[in-house]
Amino acid sequence: MTCESLQKRVSEFIRGVSKGTVLGSTEVAVGSLELIKVASSTCRNLFKEFLGDFIPRVVASRPPSQVVENILRRYLEEFVKLKAEAGFERAVDATQDIVDSLIRELDLVRDAVAEIGSRRIENGDTILTHSYSTTVLRVFEKAVKRGTTFRVYVTESRPIGEGRVTASNLSRLGIETTLIVDSAVRYVMKRVNKVFVGADAIAVNGAIINKVGTSAVALVAKEARSRLYVLAGTYKLSFETVFGELIEQVFLEDVELIIPKEKIQGLPSDVRVRAPLFDVTPPEYIDAIITEKGVLAPQAVPVLVATLYGWPPKIKSLRELLREVGEE
Amino acid sequence: MSHKYELPKEVIEIYEGIKNMSIRGAGKIAKHAVTALVKAAEAFKGDETRDFLKYMEYVGSYLKSARPTAVSLPNAIMYVLTKLRKASVTSVDEGKQIVASLAQDFIKRADEALKIIGELGSRRIENGDIIMTHCHSTAATSVITTAYKKGKVSVVYVKETRPAFQGLITAKTLAEEGLEVIIIPDSSVRYFMKKVDKVVVGADTVAANGAVVNKIGTSLVALAAKEARVRFYVATETFKFSPYTLLGELVPIEVRDPREIVDEEWLKENRGVKIFNPVFDVTPPEYIDAIITEKGVIPPQAALLLLIEDYGADLREIGTNTPTVWEE
Predict the structure, then answer these.
(1) Which of A249, B21, B57, B181 stands 20 to 30 A from A316 (CA)?
(2) What is the distance of C-alpha B276 from the center of its chain?
């Protein structure tokens, strides 16, 4: 692969991320790291420029997906540290190893979250999940391996409809799986005793940002007194929210991705379609956030942040780190 | 079927039409039913008033048995027969005249109902209100367009309404009237509720306790509205109020074909996934601010009043035609 053809792959990847065809945010993070790894050899001469261009672009293509920003920050921190110790070229050489160890770490964290989360599943449970989360899938997989029997309802999770992918995966694990439209979530909630969802970001107040519809599921769970668990590694923490930043919304612009073509025909042209991709679930609707560090109340998120990163957390911005990468 | 009385051909045709569902829709069924009563009355041969009244009761229960789940059917028949009973008829001719004029009344009222509902409902809308609606309902549309013509409303959020996308019919109708229409995916209902002042929806059936049976997703909209302190109105003709629920019967919820949600191919690839596709859900009365009918705006808990006052709902009478096997 040449540096030019890599650029093409990068553009495709970013388009997929912003249109939501790359489904889970951890998948976006892993995909980004892998592109950086490839670039460190094929774009070696332009690597500095590659990082300066690619990193802000991929982060901006799905701002609420915190793991992307955090894992790229981790990469840049390692890179800058190595550069200071051994020089730029050595840091480029080490990129493959840094990336591999970060991907391994992501996987270990996800596995730890899933291990703890799966203990919350009991025989006879009826669980509901929304959207597509590799972490949640692994929770179910672990529970099945442990021999627990349970049923799962999956919402189709429009727009995009990635709930269908979740349903496919679950039924292949041998789980009794039922797919419903998003609108039917209140109807079935009476039969459900636990809800498991992933997260794109955890705000410092314990609110979670996830695929649109999650907050409606949470509201319905609260009404029906079903438990709602959020499964997310600590790499989903949004440090910026500590400093008052709001998490940016993303709208799906392509109308045909939202409503089938044949249904749009005949509509007056001034009818608009608005489809946000994310929503915010307030902490009071969440029973617990399950991280690799343990199960915590959403309101305890600042305690977690303080323990891991100090208070206020000392975190360098991506821009700052990229500047350090570029410094002679 | 052997008849105690010789019934005219038109009456049997209407009975058959309602039974085999070639006569469909709450309004059409009701109007055909009272027309059948008139035809039957006209065909009565004899001069004993008592025989005539007995004969009419027989025709009434015969017609009601055509489709036990269509609530507008017993309502239309009760509307005529209760008033006939109370009229202290002295001759057969007078009885025939009363049936004809009551039937005319009923049809006129049904025809005018949508206009009156539009007018009464629009009074509940305030200047500058932003409205949300779900599915397609002519009564709800009537309220919104009447309010628009009074200059009160300009923006309406219309939910797509999966699986069949009936929201698009509403979007088209409202946009053609000149309203600014924004179509949103069902999953984003809670996200957009903060931007909305009032919700107006229709009804398929109204239970005696004021619970509203309507297109799947309605109860979720109502819950999200309650949470956001947004007013939630149901616009419906009174012939959709169900007398059967007085006897504690549940309103049956139809479950439809999975292929409305996913296509044949997906089903083949995912044989392990069940699809649950309920058509309606039940919105509890405590989430409804008012039901807007052609007989006035009422709190949902007063639904019983209209059933008794208007349709002469009587526990003894409706008990005779109550179906016995219903599902949630």
Answers:
(1) A249
(2) 24
Catalytic residues of B: 135, 204
> pLDDT tens-digit profile of B110-127?
889 999 999 999 999 999
Using alpha carbons, select from A141, A144, A246, A123 the residue that is nearest to residue A194.
A123
Domains and CATH numbers, chain B: 9-112 (1.20.120.420), 116-312 (3.40.50.10470)
Could you give the angle at which helices A88-118 and A25-42 cross, rounded to 10 degrees? 160
Contact criterion met (CB < 8 Å) for A155 and B187: yes
Angle between helices B49-64 and B72-86 (to 10 degrees): 170
pLDDT category at B311 given cuts 50, 70, 90 is confident
Distance CA B230, CA B236 (A): 19
Dump the DSSP string for A6-24: HHHHHHHHHHHHHHT-S-S
- Chain B residues inside the 8 Å CB shell of A166: none
The CB density around residue A272, as the number of other CB atoms within 10 Å, is 13
Question: Do the interacting molecules here have an ipTM over 0.85?
Answer: yes
A contact test, residue of B154, B184, B187, B194 with most A CBs within 10 A: B187
Count of C-beta atoms within a 10 Å radius of residue B2: 3
List CB contacts (< 8 A) between A177 and chain B: 272-274
Widest CA span in chain B? 71
Q: Structure pTM?
A: 0.91
Lookup: tokens for B98? 């009363």
